[in-house]
Automatic annotation (TrEMBL), chains A, B:
It comes from Camellia sinensis var. sinensis (China tea). CDD domains: USP_At3g01520-like (cd23659). Signal peptide: none annotated. InterPro entries: Rossmann-like_a/b/a_fold (IPR014729), Universal_stress_UspA (IPR006015), UspA (IPR006016). This is UspA domain-containing protein.
Protein backbone atom coordinates (compact mmCIF):
# COMPACT_ATOMS: atom_id res chain seq x y z
CA UNK A 1 0.00 0.00 0.00
CA UNK A 2 1.97 2.98 1.24
CA UNK A 3 5.38 1.60 0.51
CA UNK A 4 8.49 3.57 -0.29
CA UNK A 5 8.70 2.44 -3.87
CA UNK A 6 10.36 4.63 -6.44
CA UNK A 7 7.79 6.10 -8.77
CA UNK A 8 8.09 7.86 -12.05
CA UNK A 9 7.43 11.44 -11.18
CA UNK A 10 7.42 14.48 -13.39
CA UNK A 11 8.31 17.68 -11.59
CA UNK A 12 8.03 21.04 -13.31
CA UNK A 13 10.22 23.89 -12.08
CA UNK A 14 9.51 27.40 -13.33
CA UNK A 15 12.83 28.98 -14.24
CA UNK A 16 13.72 32.50 -15.24
CA UNK A 17 16.63 34.89 -15.09
CA UNK A 18 16.06 35.67 -11.41
CA UNK A 19 17.96 34.10 -8.54
CA UNK A 20 14.74 32.98 -6.81
CA UNK A 21 13.92 30.41 -9.47
CA UNK A 22 17.45 28.97 -9.32
CA UNK A 23 17.17 28.78 -5.56
CA UNK A 24 13.84 26.96 -5.98
CA UNK A 25 15.44 24.55 -8.45
CA UNK A 26 18.31 23.92 -6.05
CA UNK A 27 15.89 23.37 -3.14
CA UNK A 28 13.88 20.96 -5.26
CA UNK A 29 16.99 19.00 -6.24
CA UNK A 30 18.11 18.86 -2.63
CA UNK A 31 14.78 17.96 -1.09
CA UNK A 32 12.48 16.40 -3.63
CA UNK A 33 14.42 14.90 -6.49
CA UNK A 34 17.14 13.55 -4.26
CA UNK A 35 14.58 11.19 -2.85
CA UNK A 36 13.77 8.75 -5.55
CA UNK A 37 15.67 6.25 -7.59
CA UNK A 38 16.37 8.00 -10.86
CA UNK A 39 12.87 7.66 -12.13
CA UNK A 40 12.05 11.33 -12.00
CA UNK A 41 11.78 13.75 -14.86
CA UNK A 42 12.62 17.36 -14.20
CA UNK A 43 10.83 19.77 -16.52
CA UNK A 44 12.45 23.19 -16.73
CA UNK A 45 9.74 25.59 -17.83
CA UNK A 46 10.63 29.04 -19.11
CA UNK A 47 8.14 31.70 -20.19
CA UNK A 48 9.39 34.07 -22.83
CA UNK A 49 7.87 37.54 -22.64
CA UNK A 50 5.08 37.91 -25.19
CA UNK A 51 5.63 40.33 -28.07
CA UNK A 52 4.04 43.70 -27.38
CA UNK A 53 0.85 44.32 -29.35
CA UNK A 54 -1.50 47.26 -29.53
CA UNK A 55 -5.22 47.54 -30.13
CA UNK A 56 -7.10 50.33 -31.83
CA UNK A 57 -10.68 51.19 -32.79
CA UNK A 58 -11.36 50.63 -36.48
CA UNK A 59 -13.68 52.67 -38.71
CA UNK A 60 -16.73 50.75 -37.56
CA UNK A 61 -15.93 51.31 -33.91
CA UNK A 62 -14.70 47.76 -33.39
CA UNK A 63 -11.62 47.07 -31.39
CA UNK A 64 -9.08 45.43 -33.62
CA UNK A 65 -5.66 44.02 -33.06
CA UNK A 66 -3.13 46.25 -34.79
CA UNK A 67 -0.27 43.79 -34.47
CA UNK A 68 3.15 44.78 -33.27
CA UNK A 69 3.56 48.30 -32.05
CA UNK A 70 7.29 48.15 -32.76
CA UNK A 71 9.16 48.13 -36.03
CA UNK A 72 10.31 44.77 -37.44
CA UNK A 73 13.89 45.68 -36.52
CA UNK A 74 13.00 46.25 -32.90
CA UNK A 75 10.94 43.05 -32.85
CA UNK A 76 13.90 41.12 -34.26
CA UNK A 77 16.19 42.61 -31.63
CA UNK A 78 13.74 41.73 -28.87
CA UNK A 79 13.37 38.19 -30.20
CA UNK A 80 17.14 37.83 -30.23
CA UNK A 81 17.36 39.15 -26.69
CA UNK A 82 14.58 36.81 -25.54
CA UNK A 83 16.34 33.83 -27.12
CA UNK A 84 19.60 34.83 -25.46
CA UNK A 85 17.77 34.97 -22.14
CA UNK A 86 16.45 31.46 -22.69
CA UNK A 87 19.99 30.25 -23.38
CA UNK A 88 21.31 32.10 -20.35
CA UNK A 89 18.67 30.67 -18.02
CA UNK A 90 18.95 27.12 -19.31
CA UNK A 91 22.75 27.29 -19.08
CA UNK A 92 22.44 28.49 -15.47
CA UNK A 93 20.08 25.60 -14.68
CA UNK A 94 22.45 23.17 -16.39
CA UNK A 95 25.36 24.37 -14.27
CA UNK A 96 23.25 23.92 -11.16
CA UNK A 97 22.24 20.42 -12.23
CA UNK A 98 25.89 19.50 -12.69
CA UNK A 99 26.42 20.06 -8.98
CA UNK A 100 23.96 17.24 -8.40
CA UNK A 101 25.91 14.84 -10.56
CA UNK A 102 24.85 11.88 -8.47
CA UNK A 103 21.22 12.48 -9.40
CA UNK A 104 20.17 10.64 -12.50
CA UNK A 105 17.05 12.52 -13.45
CA UNK A 106 15.82 13.02 -16.95
CA UNK A 107 15.66 16.70 -17.89
CA UNK A 108 13.15 18.20 -20.28
CA UNK A 109 12.90 21.82 -21.29
CA UNK A 110 9.81 23.72 -22.25
CA UNK A 111 9.91 27.28 -23.54
CA UNK A 112 6.73 29.11 -24.46
CA UNK A 113 5.76 32.72 -24.96
CA UNK A 114 3.29 34.27 -22.60
CA UNK A 115 2.54 35.31 -19.08
CA UNK A 116 4.55 32.95 -16.83
CA UNK A 117 1.50 31.96 -14.81
CA UNK A 118 -0.37 30.85 -17.90
CA UNK A 119 2.65 29.16 -19.45
CA UNK A 120 3.39 27.24 -16.25
CA UNK A 121 -0.20 26.16 -15.58
CA UNK A 122 -0.68 25.18 -19.20
CA UNK A 123 2.56 23.16 -19.28
CA UNK A 124 1.73 21.51 -15.95
CA UNK A 125 -1.61 20.37 -17.28
CA UNK A 126 -0.37 19.40 -20.74
CA UNK A 127 2.51 17.32 -19.35
CA UNK A 128 0.41 16.02 -16.47
CA UNK A 129 3.17 16.77 -13.97
CA UNK A 130 3.10 15.53 -10.38
CA UNK A 131 4.27 18.78 -8.88
CA UNK A 132 5.05 22.39 -9.76
CA UNK A 133 7.93 24.17 -8.02
CA UNK A 134 8.19 27.94 -8.10
CA UNK A 135 10.45 30.54 -6.58
CA UNK A 136 8.63 33.38 -4.93
CA UNK A 137 10.77 36.49 -5.35
CA UNK A 138 9.70 38.17 -8.54
CA UNK A 139 9.70 36.57 -11.90
CA UNK A 140 12.72 37.84 -13.75
CA UNK A 141 13.79 41.03 -15.39
CA UNK A 142 11.21 41.32 -18.14
CA UNK A 143 8.31 39.96 -16.19
CA UNK A 144 8.25 42.28 -13.21
CA UNK A 145 4.69 43.19 -14.15
CA UNK A 146 3.61 39.75 -13.07
CA UNK A 147 5.47 39.75 -9.74
CA UNK A 148 3.65 38.04 -6.93
CA UNK A 149 0.84 36.78 -9.04
CA UNK A 150 2.60 33.77 -10.53
CA UNK A 151 2.91 31.56 -7.47
CA UNK A 152 -0.51 32.62 -6.16
CA UNK A 153 -2.16 31.97 -9.49
CA UNK A 154 -0.50 28.60 -9.98
CA UNK A 155 -1.28 27.53 -6.41
CA UNK A 156 -4.94 28.24 -7.16
CA UNK A 157 -5.17 26.97 -10.70
CA UNK A 158 -2.76 24.08 -11.10
CA UNK A 159 -4.34 20.71 -10.52
CA UNK A 160 -1.22 19.23 -8.92
CA UNK A 161 0.63 20.12 -5.72
CA UNK A 162 2.48 23.44 -5.93
CA UNK A 163 5.60 24.14 -3.92
CA UNK A 164 6.46 27.79 -3.40
CA UNK A 165 10.09 28.21 -2.40
CA UNK A 166 11.02 31.48 -0.82
CA UNK A 167 14.61 32.58 -0.79
CA UNK A 168 15.96 33.03 2.70
CA UNK A 169 16.59 36.73 3.35
CA UNK A 170 20.30 36.12 3.70
CA UNK A 171 20.49 34.88 0.11
CA UNK A 172 18.11 37.39 -1.45
CA UNK A 173 19.69 39.61 -4.06
CA UNK A 174 19.53 43.28 -3.12
CA UNK A 175 16.69 45.10 -4.78
CA UNK B 1 28.68 20.62 -2.05
CA UNK B 2 25.36 19.57 -3.54
CA UNK B 3 25.55 15.98 -2.47
CA UNK B 4 22.68 13.68 -1.61
CA UNK B 5 23.37 13.54 2.08
CA UNK B 6 20.58 12.95 4.53
CA UNK B 7 19.81 16.11 6.44
CA UNK B 8 17.79 16.70 9.53
CA UNK B 9 14.66 18.32 8.24
CA UNK B 10 11.62 19.48 10.11
CA UNK B 11 8.44 19.40 8.05
CA UNK B 12 5.21 20.86 9.37
CA UNK B 13 1.93 19.51 8.02
CA UNK B 14 -1.27 21.37 8.83
CA UNK B 15 -3.87 18.80 9.83
CA UNK B 16 -7.57 19.12 10.50
CA UNK B 17 -10.71 17.05 10.33
CA UNK B 18 -10.99 17.45 6.54
CA UNK B 19 -9.86 14.86 4.03
CA UNK B 20 -7.67 17.39 2.19
CA UNK B 21 -5.19 17.67 5.03
CA UNK B 22 -4.89 13.89 5.32
CA UNK B 23 -4.33 13.69 1.58
CA UNK B 24 -1.62 16.35 1.94
CA UNK B 25 -0.01 14.37 4.77
CA UNK B 26 -0.11 11.21 2.69
CA UNK B 27 1.36 13.02 -0.31
CA UNK B 28 4.11 14.43 1.87
CA UNK B 29 4.93 11.00 3.30
CA UNK B 30 5.02 9.51 -0.17
CA UNK B 31 7.00 12.22 -1.88
CA UNK B 32 8.99 14.20 0.63
CA UNK B 33 9.60 12.22 3.78
CA UNK B 34 10.22 9.00 1.92
CA UNK B 35 13.36 10.57 0.56
CA UNK B 36 15.69 10.88 3.46
CA UNK B 37 17.33 8.55 5.89
CA UNK B 38 15.22 8.77 9.01
CA UNK B 39 16.50 12.14 10.02
CA UNK B 40 13.28 13.99 9.43
CA UNK B 41 10.86 15.28 11.99
CA UNK B 42 7.22 15.50 11.04
CA UNK B 43 5.31 18.16 12.93
CA UNK B 44 1.54 17.68 12.89
CA UNK B 45 0.01 21.09 13.51
CA UNK B 46 -3.64 21.41 14.47
CA UNK B 47 -5.47 24.70 15.06
CA UNK B 48 -8.32 24.51 17.54
CA UNK B 49 -11.12 26.97 16.85
CA UNK B 50 -10.83 30.00 19.12
CA UNK B 51 -13.54 30.51 21.75
CA UNK B 52 -16.19 32.93 20.59
CA UNK B 53 -16.01 36.36 22.23
CA UNK B 54 -18.20 39.44 21.93
CA UNK B 55 -17.49 43.13 22.20
CA UNK B 56 -19.78 45.87 23.47
CA UNK B 57 -19.69 49.60 24.00
CA UNK B 58 -19.20 50.52 27.66
CA UNK B 59 -20.70 53.53 29.48
CA UNK B 60 -17.95 55.83 28.25
CA UNK B 61 -18.47 54.82 24.67
CA UNK B 62 -15.36 52.65 24.60
CA UNK B 63 -15.39 49.27 22.94
CA UNK B 64 -14.66 46.63 25.51
CA UNK B 65 -14.22 42.90 25.39
CA UNK B 66 -17.17 41.27 27.12
CA UNK B 67 -15.58 37.84 27.30
CA UNK B 68 -17.44 34.76 26.21
CA UNK B 69 -20.83 35.26 24.67
CA UNK B 70 -21.85 31.75 25.66
CA UNK B 71 -22.64 30.32 29.05
CA UNK B 72 -19.93 28.38 30.92
CA UNK B 73 -21.81 25.15 30.16
CA UNK B 74 -21.79 25.78 26.46
CA UNK B 75 -18.13 26.78 26.60
CA UNK B 76 -17.31 23.56 28.43
CA UNK B 77 -19.22 21.54 25.82
CA UNK B 78 -17.42 23.34 23.02
CA UNK B 79 -14.05 22.76 24.68
CA UNK B 80 -14.86 19.08 25.05
CA UNK B 81 -15.90 18.88 21.41
CA UNK B 82 -12.74 20.70 20.33
CA UNK B 83 -10.59 18.31 22.33
CA UNK B 84 -12.40 15.34 20.85
CA UNK B 85 -11.71 16.74 17.41
CA UNK B 86 -8.01 17.01 18.22
CA UNK B 87 -8.01 13.36 19.30
CA UNK B 88 -9.93 12.35 16.20
CA UNK B 89 -7.58 14.17 13.83
CA UNK B 90 -4.40 12.98 15.52
CA UNK B 91 -5.71 9.40 15.56
CA UNK B 92 -6.47 9.68 11.86
CA UNK B 93 -2.95 10.96 11.20
CA UNK B 94 -1.50 8.16 13.35
CA UNK B 95 -3.36 5.53 11.34
CA UNK B 96 -2.05 7.05 8.13
CA UNK B 97 1.50 7.09 9.50
CA UNK B 98 1.22 3.41 10.35
CA UNK B 99 0.78 2.66 6.65
CA UNK B 100 4.26 4.09 6.16
CA UNK B 101 5.79 1.75 8.70
CA UNK B 102 9.08 1.65 6.87
CA UNK B 103 9.56 5.36 7.45
CA UNK B 104 11.38 6.12 10.63
CA UNK B 105 10.49 9.76 11.14
CA UNK B 106 10.13 11.46 14.47
CA UNK B 107 6.63 12.81 14.99
CA UNK B 108 5.79 15.91 17.01
CA UNK B 109 2.35 17.33 17.61
CA UNK B 110 1.43 20.93 18.10
CA UNK B 111 -2.09 22.04 19.01
CA UNK B 112 -2.91 25.71 19.46
CA UNK B 113 -6.08 27.76 19.51
CA UNK B 114 -6.62 30.31 16.81
CA UNK B 115 -7.07 30.96 13.14
CA UNK B 116 -5.28 28.11 11.32
CA UNK B 117 -3.26 30.48 9.17
CA UNK B 118 -1.86 32.25 12.22
CA UNK B 119 -1.31 29.04 14.17
CA UNK B 120 0.53 27.43 11.25
CA UNK B 121 2.71 30.43 10.42
CA UNK B 122 3.51 30.98 14.09
CA UNK B 123 4.42 27.32 14.65
CA UNK B 124 6.50 27.24 11.45
CA UNK B 125 8.50 30.22 12.62
CA UNK B 126 8.77 29.13 16.25
CA UNK B 127 9.96 25.64 15.33
CA UNK B 128 12.07 26.92 12.45
CA UNK B 129 10.71 24.26 10.12
CA UNK B 130 12.18 23.57 6.69
CA UNK B 131 8.86 23.26 4.94
CA UNK B 132 5.13 23.71 5.48
CA UNK B 133 2.69 21.32 3.80
CA UNK B 134 -0.98 22.20 3.48
CA UNK B 135 -4.02 20.68 1.88
CA UNK B 136 -6.04 23.05 -0.21
CA UNK B 137 -9.67 22.00 0.05
CA UNK B 138 -11.18 23.90 2.90
CA UNK B 139 -9.97 23.81 6.42
CA UNK B 140 -12.24 21.55 8.38
CA UNK B 141 -15.71 21.67 9.74
CA UNK B 142 -15.40 24.49 12.23
CA UNK B 143 -13.05 26.61 10.22
CA UNK B 144 -15.01 27.04 7.01
CA UNK B 145 -14.84 30.80 7.55
CA UNK B 146 -11.14 30.67 6.78
CA UNK B 147 -11.46 28.53 3.66
CA UNK B 148 -9.06 29.43 0.90
CA UNK B 149 -7.16 31.94 2.91
CA UNK B 150 -4.96 29.53 4.84
CA UNK B 151 -2.74 28.24 2.07
CA UNK B 152 -2.58 31.66 0.39
CA UNK B 153 -1.71 33.39 3.62
CA UNK B 154 0.93 30.85 4.59
CA UNK B 155 2.47 30.88 1.11
CA UNK B 156 2.86 34.65 1.49
CA UNK B 157 3.87 34.87 5.11
CA UNK B 158 5.82 31.76 6.02
CA UNK B 159 9.55 32.19 5.67
CA UNK B 160 10.12 28.63 4.51
CA UNK B 161 8.95 26.78 1.39
CA UNK B 162 5.23 26.06 1.37
CA UNK B 163 3.76 23.10 -0.45
CA UNK B 164 0.07 23.30 -1.29
CA UNK B 165 -1.35 19.89 -2.04
CA UNK B 166 -4.62 19.81 -3.90
CA UNK B 167 -6.77 16.72 -3.74
CA UNK B 168 -7.35 15.20 -7.16
CA UNK B 169 -10.98 15.63 -8.14
CA UNK B 170 -11.53 11.90 -8.14
CA UNK B 171 -10.67 11.73 -4.44
CA UNK B 172 -12.46 14.89 -3.33
CA UNK B 173 -15.25 14.31 -0.86
CA UNK B 174 -18.62 15.44 -2.19
CA UNK B 175 -19.62 18.87 -0.97
Amino acid sequence: MAECEAKERKILVGVDEGEASMYALSWCLNNILVSQNSKDTLVLCYAKPPRPVSTAIDGAGRRELRGYMCSPNIIATMDKYANELVEFVMEKAKRLLKEFHNLDVRVEKIVESGDPKDVICHAAEKLDVDMVVLGSHGYGLMKRAFVGSVSNHCAQKAKCPVLIVKMPKSTCPSK
